[in-house]
Amino acid sequence: MALTEVYWDHHIPLPKLAPIQAKVTVALVALLCFINSYDGEFVFDDSEAIVNNKDLRPTAPLNNIWSNDFWGSNLSSNSSHKSYRPLTVLTFRLNYLVAGGLHPVGFHVLNIVLHAVISALMIDVFAILIGGLAYDEKGRILNHAPKTSLLAAVFFAAHPVHTESVAGIVGRADLLCALFFQLSFLTYCKAFNKDDRFSVQWVVVSLLLCAAAMLCKEQGITVLVSEIFRMGLLTRLALMGLGGLLMLYARWRIMGTGPPAFTEVDNPASFAESVFLRIVNYNYYYSLNAWLLLCPWWLCFDWSMGCVPLIKSATDWRMVWLLLLWCILIGLISQALCSQDSQRRRTLTLGLVLLVVPFLPACNIFFRVGFVIAERVLYLSSAGYCLLLAYSLGHCFCRWLLCVMVLALLCVYVVRCALRSHQWRSEQSLFSSALSVCPLNAKVHYNVGKNLADKGNTAAAVSYYREAVRLHPTYVHAMNNLGNILKEKNELIEAEQLLSKAVSIQPDFAAAWMNLGIVQNSLQKFEKAEKSYWNAIRFRRKYPDCYYNLGRLYADQNRHIDALNAWRNATVLKPDHSLAWNNMVILLDNTGNLGQAELIGREALRLLPNDHTIMFSLANVLGKLQKYKESEGFFLHALRINPNAASCHGNLAVLYHRWGKLELAKEHYELSLKLDPEAPGTRDNYNMLRRKLDQHKRSAP
Fold first, then answer.
1. How far apart, in whole angstroms, are the C-alpha atoms of residue 497 and residue 485?
2. Residue ranges of the domains in the chain?
3. What is the pTM of this model?
4. Which of 175, 351, 419, 585 has the lowest tally of Cβ within 10 angstroms?
5. Where does the DUF1736 domain start and stop, copy by copy (predicted)?
6. What is the DSSP annotation of 485-518?
7. CB atoms closer than 10 angstroms to residue 674
8. 332-337 long-range contacts, Cβ below 8 Å, gap at least 24?
């Protein structure tokens, strides 16, 4: 039903702009807030969802995106998170194709543009929610609250809580879901023309757009609840209900198995001792989400692992926040239901619906979620908050104070967005920024340490890994990474202790079993090392790196057949496993099986035609078989790829020495010694060649 002009709209200290001007203004604000994230890196969850997701590659069948989850795992797998978002993955794949690879700029630019478009469309959504549907003589929708809808849309465009969704590429799921949510809502509104007639066709289109929203992110289905506010209630309810049930059934069939299994680390409140404590902590989480909307200054990429300590008794002072939240909500609900002002009732009701309904899938009521707080899930809910905020400001009758408040709030939002977007540009700045927000979060310290280790600063990484283990004594991934660094530093005893503890806490941790085997092998505990390797393979059957390390163990024990079988298994599981191929060639060469070594080397080069290490090993074998010309070709090819390989120059010199090409031998001996003066044997061979050349000169007539 159309409403009259919204009486508080003229209080808003903004100019009344034409529809196109208003949308362009909001879009420009959105761009201003997040533009400095356009050249950021792939950070945090981008690694799994994009960098390591094979479904993005053109070589992967397109059908895979319809059978795999958001992270590239098969939905039927027990390890799948069941995040079914094929349309979002499809946009990632298109980004990959357009850019010709994993270039983050294109991914970031599309996210920023999507947020600008969504922010501009919010004007139409807010206009309908505040002022209802009304048409001019040409059948165009009228905006009865142009200033309020503009202000709410500007707040939405600039809200800092959106940074994770916009600057983090995996936030594309939230952006696309919001876009189709809006389109579904606006299309549904088209089902009612100016004569108030009901169009089934437009409702069907709205349902299809709702399905698209759900294929971008699960909460897209909540748009159905938001659409039940116009006339023709029974018919509309029947259509919406049938469509919703069909979508939920399809979703259930696609997931195959039950919901994903999350651990206490992911969501500690859901593992609380009693129902009372679970309810209390869930409500505390809701109050923290509300605080992020009210004061989005303390933002963090991860809120798990001790970042939010559990409330364990009714005397905890934080219970105040729960009471405050519900007092405010009850006050708003009472006004929405009982106010004599119909415009107030409508705005508050629909603002609360838009605030609460999109948040429902993340509230732990229907199923356990895998996080404590996630800023990205507030993307749609923040629209309801921005609507309520604009409504509140519209009731401030001191105009100069209102102007100051709006201007100050927008300036704070823009500055905070710019700062937070900058932090999301690299993992180093993102992870470091979380240390001041969540100093008790073990995962924050772990990620800072991992980032430092990846950049080669292992000394600094050790202290962060140790702090992560101190904060969370059962943090097996931190133990594993710390054990690896200690292994490289030859602190083998402590490394063994850490890795042993990790596998005792999580017996199916295959990577820790393999690393424990490597440490035990270095400590010459061969039987224990072999058991550790086989445990790793038992828990991860397709584990080529473990087979490779098992082969090294067997080679150290002179169990040559077992070593060759282990390396062969590694190459079967991973045909481009260069180290396994090379070790097979070297072992066969060292044991005198030159013919078999040649066959293996040629097989490897068919799969890895530009691998200079395999060329080098095969060239050595061919030289011993007196196939000098072929050997020379492989040596020279290897040197074209890696011209500064001293060993390659040295062995090519030996080949020329045997072949009788003494001047070429002298040239490559000298190149080898120039690159590595301490190269073993090269100096002796070079001196031997010089004596031979001197003899030739003296014997020459």
1. 13
2. 19-255, 644-700
3. 0.84
4. 419
5. 258-330
6. HHHHTT-HHHHHHHHHHHHHHSTT-HHHHHHHHH
7. 11
8. 332/388
